[in-house]
Every structure is written in C-alpha cells, then in structure tokens.
Amino acid sequence: MEIITNQRFRQTLKYIRALFFISLIMSIFFMMGWVSVLIYAKIQGPPPLAVPQSTVYYSADGQVIGESSQGQTRYWVELQEISPDLINATISIEDRRFFEHNGFDYKRIAGAAIADIKAMAKVQGASTISQQYARNLFLEHDKTWKRKVLEALYTLRLEINYSKEQILEGYLNTIYYGHGAYGIEAAANFYFNKQAKDLTLSEATMLAGIPKGPSSYSPLTNFEQAKLRQKLILQSMVQNKLLSSEEAAIAEAVPLSFYAKFDNKHQDIAPYFQDAVKQVLRSLTTITDRTIQMGGLKVYTTLDPKVQQIVEEKIASTIDPKSEIQAAVMVTDPSTGHVKALVGGRDYSISQFNRATQAKRQPGSTFKPFLYYSAIEQGFTPSTQLRSEYTTFRFGEKEELTYSPSNFNDYYANDTITLAQAIALSDNVFAVKTHLSLGQQALIDTSRRIGISGKLPEVPSLALGTSTVKMIDMVNAYGILANGGKRIEPTFIQKIVNHHGEIIYENKVHKEQILDKDAAFVTTHMMTGMFDEKLNDYTKVTGRTIKDKLTRVYAGKSGTTSTDSWMIGYSPNLVTGVWIGYDRDHTLDLAAEKRYAKTIWADIMEEALKEEPVQAFKPTSGVVGVYVNPHNGLLATEACPVARLTYYLRGSEPDEYCTDHLPHQYNNEGPPIQIDIVPEDEGWIDKLMKWISP
Prior knowledge:
The longest helix is centred in the first third of the chain and has 43 residues, at 2-44. Helix 15 crosses helix 17 (428-438). The protein has 23 helices and 20 strands. 45% of the residues are buried. Residues 119-124 and 668-682 have low confidence and may be disordered. With 694 residues, the protein is α+β, with helices and mostly antiparallel strands. It holds the Pfam family Transgly.
C-alpha cells in the first residue's frame, strides 16, 4: 500500500513538473509574443488620426458660405473646446478607467465574460474608448476574429504613440451621434444649435448616451429611452464622484429643447460660385475628390458676399419673374483676378449648369475692343477714319467668298467716321474693314494673348464676335485691358488649410505685361465713349440708355446677337460682365429683353462702388491727351461746337486743326493756334479725364 502511494506521489510530482515547464514555456512564448506585438506596434509608428470631416468654404471676409457633407456632417474641435461635462459624462459611462489602463481594461473584460457566461448570451461590452476609436477610425464593423486582432493592434499603436488626451479628442470627434452627425461639434450643432464648448450638464449627459445606440437613444426618435440613458449616466457620474446627487437630480429635471437640424443657411450663398471653387479644387493634382468632400479642409475663397448679394438682387429685380430667359454675371478685381461674385443662372435649384464658366455663346460686339486694341498697336489712332456704308467684302484664297455685314437697323453714316466713333456707335462695317486691313490673324493673336479659348477662325465675321466664347474668358480679358495689359487668371481660391491648420495651397498673383500699356489705356479711353453723347453721329452711342444711371467714369462695350445680349465694362478697380439669353437658342424678340444686360450692369457697378472713392483711369506715360472734334478727329478750335478730350499714343496725336466751323477767310489762311481749349459743353467725363491727365 505504501509503495502504491509513493508511485502515485511521484507520478503527480511528474505531472506538476511537466505542467510547470509547459506553463513556463507558454509564458515565455506569450511574453515573446507580447513583446513582439509591442515592437511591431512601435515600428509601425503612430497611425494617422485624420478622419472624414466636412470641408468648409469661406468668403473673402471669413464668413462661412458652404460646406460638403454627403449626408454626413463632421467637424474637428480641440479637447479644450469641448464641454468638461461632456468629457466627464462620456468617460464615466463608456470607460471610467480610461486614464489608468493601456488600452485594454482587463478587469472589465473579465467581468463582461462572466456576465455573458451567466446569461449564455452577449449582454455586456468591454471595449475601451481606445478600442472604439480604433474601430471607428480604421476598421469595418464586421464581427470577425481578423477584425478583432486588427482592432487590438490599432489600439496598441494608438496607446503607444499618442497621449490619452489625443486619443480622447480623436474619439469625441469621430463617434457617431445619429442623424448624420459625426463628432461632438456636429452633434451639439444639430441637437442644440450651439458649439460643443457651450453644452450644459443636462445637454451633455443627453448627448453622451447616444453613441451606445444612436437609433435607440436619440431623443428625437425615442425620448423615453434617451431619458433613461441620461439618468444612468448621471448616476454613474455620482458614483465616480464627478457630481453630487443634488446636481444630478437638477440636471435630470431640466427640460430640453431640441434644434433638430444643421444650421446650413450658408449653403444658399453663391451656389454657382461654390461649384466653380470645387472645380478649381479638382484641378489641383494634390487634392483628391475624397479630400475635397470629407478632408476637413478650410477653403478661403475670393467671394465678396456684399457684391454677390447685389448681383442676385439686381437680376431678380430687373428680369420679369415670369420669363424663362437666363442670366449670368461675373464680377472681378482686375488687379488680382479675384472673382468677387458669380451667378451662373437664375435658379440653381432648377438648373446647376453654370452659364458663366461652362456655356459658350457668341459675344457679338463685346469682342470689338480686342480688335481695336490690335489696331492701335499697329498704327491706327482714335482719329483714324473709314467710311461707314453698306459694303460687300470678298475673301478667301481667290476672293471667291463674300460677306456683307449690316449695322443695327441698317443705319450707316454713308460717310467717314472716326475709330473713336466706330466703337462708341458699334459700327459693324468699320470693324470688318479694320479687321481685314490689319490681317485676320492679328485679332486671333491678340485674343489668344488675353486668354480667349475656343475656335477663332480666320473669317471677316470674327470682328463682330460670331465665334463662341466663355463669359469667364471675356471678363478676364476685359480685366487685362483694365489693369494696363497685365496677364491675370480668374482666381476663386485664396488659400486652403488642412485639418491640422497647415496651409497646403496659397494663390500667388503672378502678373506679366502681355499688352502694350499705352495701347491698352488708349483702348480703355475709347471704350468710355459708349457713354459719351459727344460721339453721336448717324446714330447715338450705345450706352445712352444707361448714361443717366452712372456717376463715375466707366469703360465698356455692349454686344447683341439674335440670341445673346451682353454688357461688359469696368472701372479702375472692378470688372463686371452680364449675359442674357435663352438656353435653347430662342431669339431675343422683346425690347425689354435686349435692355436687361445694360440695366443690370449699370445697377451692379453703381451699387457695388457707391462706398468707394471715385477713381478715373490714369493715363500712362506714353500717351498724350488733346481736344479734338469728335466728328473728324482733328484738333478742335474755339469755333468747333463740340470738343472731346481724346488720348493717343505719344507722337500719333493729330497735328491738324479742324477748319469746318471757322469763318471762310480762316479756311484760306490756315487754322488759328489753339491753346488749352475748354468747350462750354464739356461733360463730366472730359472734366475728370482732364483733371488727371499730365
């Protein structure tokens, strides 16, 4: 019996030794595995904490004008910008030992396992805030062993490489609070129309309960369950000595009022402009579509909300609301190219097609300033004379083709007129004669230099704007004339800041002198003539209908085709282009429709500049201003009934005096010497131009 007992003892001892060594080996392997996991987590380095966030768009004055959401609204706020009550409530209910564990709460895991075994079902969770953040940030929410392993690895990487405060900040900015609100800032905005830092204790404890089950604990869909969850959170805060029982009772009893919507009123600001901004963003190769939509970018644009509002109001108040006619307007700063306002159609909710940046339409006579700039550059002057009469032009290699342009209402001078008159009266015959005399390539070359894209064929009618163009190109080209011939590009974005606050793009204005500054000024001054009735001849200047609206010097040109009505013009610091027409090539038959563009343009310019000091176009050093008889372009005398201050490239100004109105004996003896003539009917344009001329 004693022998059997000894054998059993030795055998038991043998098992104990085997078990000890097996346990030791397993412990060593476990430790090696754990160390390996830690080393792996350290080698992998810190995982990126960037999460999908709404991209926000700002106007030039810092006002929020829009944001991207795709049904999800996300913002990122720093931990110190979150209510302490919300932080305490979240930690108390989700992970009260958050600041003590290393990412895994083993005591809680054991308790959850025992509870599950007793209930024979999954009844209690044990995920820490770090684990939940890892799951939300990097992983799908499928319930597989692979996902659990990856979750553990990501959790370790978070804990090893980031502070508890950074993890908590990331978690609170990532967690889902229901109704499309991701992160506590979006939730505070949606539920209570306030920022996360301003949440009260009652509001904070209500929100802290939602992430457990947004569909079950949203106070908007299940208020009773939400209140029970809030009560549980308040009790846990009392147990964790974060609140007194009295404070918890008061917070539970406070009635809550829910806002239940995102404050997206800014989404209605300049939708066509916002679309153009997003198109520019896509052209920046370093920014992907996903980053644009949910990268948490802050996009600072060039939009001036005041000018944008003026544009929208003038369109709405001018055009018959019952009309189906469309409109497009673009306003820029000629010194920088900054787009200050943009309208691509009358109703964005009906049509998102942007007629300012996408449509190609015939510009009509608004194309003529580019022709006359080319003419000035090649030796024409404002006094150059050509006959205005019905003419049939022959062109082609063998002159086998013919073209017979007509003036508005078939009016012709049947006499000579000056170049200054031709642009003010919009004489088509004069324009085609000029185009052909320069050589048709001259207008094409100038148009390309100033950024006109699209097909520009060598045909006589190109001088009359028969090739289709984009408004954005036309307005920018006028801006180049306005700034003295410097190349600029239409600019919608000033800078882009990523979710870390780093500037990842900043627009820098690059200016290059591409036109002769003196010829550009002479062209600009000729374009002021459309508002000056001293240039009236066989017909009246094209800007006469809006002249009385204007209180300062403008340069501009209108243009009309059977389907399009344009007005583009500028002051020294503002360019505005207006297009009116139908989308489906309907003709403009009503007289009122043909007046819309000029009226809207004049009203926008005057309203946008009313608080600005009056500025005139400053003559360049290479030009000289003299008074001429506008009907023949010769130097005016005291006998001339009309005299107009006109600018020329220095050395090209006329040197002959007008003798048409002198007594007969002076005609025989030659013109008298004329010094500093000031005509009695001198207009405000002449007075201002004379005042600033050297």
